Amino acid sequence: MASVILYFEDYQPGLVVDCGSVSVEEADIIAFAKEFDPQPFHIDPAFASPYGGLIASGWHTISLVMRQLVENFVSADSSLGAAGVDEVRWPHPVRPGDTLTVQATVLEARRSNSKPDRGIVRTLIEAVNQAGEPVLRMIAINFVLARPSAAN
After folding, report:
1. Residue pair 24/129 in contact by the 8 Å Cβ criterion
2. What are the tens digits of pLDDT across the range 60-116?
3. Nearest of 76, 89, 101, 93 to residue 23 by alpha carbon
4. Closest by alpha carbon to 5, among 135, 150, 147, 109?
5. Ramachandran angles phi, psi of 89, nearest 5°
6. Smallest Cα–Cα separation from 69: which of 14, 124, 130, 149?
7. Which of 25, 29, 118, 129 has CA atoms 20 to 30 A from the CA of 37?
8. Residue 57 in 3-state DSSP?
């Protein structure tokens, strides 16, 4: 597992981070869906014919992308969690055999008025498949600690 050390000051608007890639297998799609999103088109290829075959749950896609973000963008030293996610979109389905490439782009970073030891970072999260088709787009709002020497 990769480890990044970033603080609020490092998340400058315009920062683009390549968060790596992850491959998606049919067995993983089915296992995730059986446990968390048991709709037939995520579990049984026969029911998925209207979609051209089995497709991953959007929540599975977000989970796979989250892992890439934790390993390559979110710092365990400074992350204080998220206030939420806006504008979640799944423009194209994720299918067995896809490889998703994840990118994070900082849109906004502002110091908290009430807690100056931290800031709020808005980040555009995008994932594309191996054909370059977008499969996820969302905006994350995270709380991030300031670098200890900069917090005072």
Report:
1. no
2. 999 999 999 999 999 999 999 999 999 999 999 999 999 999 999 999 999 999 999
3. 101
4. 147
5. -135, 140
6. 124
7. 129
8. coil
What is the number of H-type helices and E-type strands within the chain?
3, 5
Report the amino acid identity of residue 116.
P
0.85 exceeded by the pTM?
Answer: yes
At 129, which helix (H) or strand (E)? none
Query: What 3-state DSSP class applies to 35?
Result: helix
CB atoms within 10 A of CB 129: 19
- pLDDT (tens digit per residue) in 44-65: 999 999 999 999 999 999 999 9
Q: CA separation (Å) from 151 to 9, 25, 109, 116?
A: 10, 44, 15, 6
Taking the alpha carbons at both ends of the chain, their separation in whole angstroms is 32
